Amino acid sequence: MSSIPPKRRHVFIKKAFQGRFIAGMFLLMLLSGLCSALLIYWLAGSDLAAQSQTAHVNIANAWNRLGLSLLIGNVVAVIVTGALTVFVVLYASHKIAGPLYRFEKLCEQVGNGELDVLASLREKDQLHDLAQAFTLMVNKLRTRQSLQNESIAKINQQIRQLKNDGDIATHQAQVIEQLELAVKQLQS
């Protein structure tokens, strides 16, 4: 059993999960930028339109320039924030998807009967409590397997003693054979 936490070299571990997570967060950020642009347009548009009718025509030109500046500013803000969002969400999802992937592999190993696995995670990964519970579960399974093997050995010894006793009836011999079959099933 190794106690060294595994190092992940791939950022995309569960591509479908991480992709959906990133797309959802990016769309949420894009929606907030759009709402911000619409709010600014709505607030500034009515004031500038009212002033352009009572003041000089230059104010209407100022609105055209201001509107374009707001649009460009919001587009740049959305792009920069979007890029930062993708990296932050990718990092955060990596801290969740990585341990989940590790647990998938550990569950496969335990399902295959390998009870010498150790659920170790990197220091800053999430799900450390789950890793401790998993390790405790595997230890209990290992203890139960050991007790089961001891019980099977005792039963096999008693079966051998009964077989060596030449004074058994046919019915008892059939029961002993059934016990042997049950023991073989427990061992597999």
Give your account of this protein's structure:
By secondary structure, the chain is mainly α. It has 2 domains: 1-126, no CATH class; 127-188. The protein has helices spanning 15-54, 58-111, 128-164, 170-187. It starts with 14 loop residues before the first helix and ends with a helix.
Tell me, briefly, the overall form.
rod-shaped
User: What summary fits the major beta sheet?
Assistant: none
Number of strands: 0
- Report the span from N to C terminus: 24 Å
Compute the average pLDDT: 76
Topology (elements, then pairings):
Blueprint lengths: L14 H40 L3 H54 L16 H37 L5 H18 L1
Helix pairs in contact: 1-2, 3-4
Any descriptors?
188 residues, mainly alpha, single chain
Report a brief summary of the structure.
With 188 residues, this protein is an all-alpha fold. The protein has helices spanning 15-54, 58-111, 128-164, 170-187.
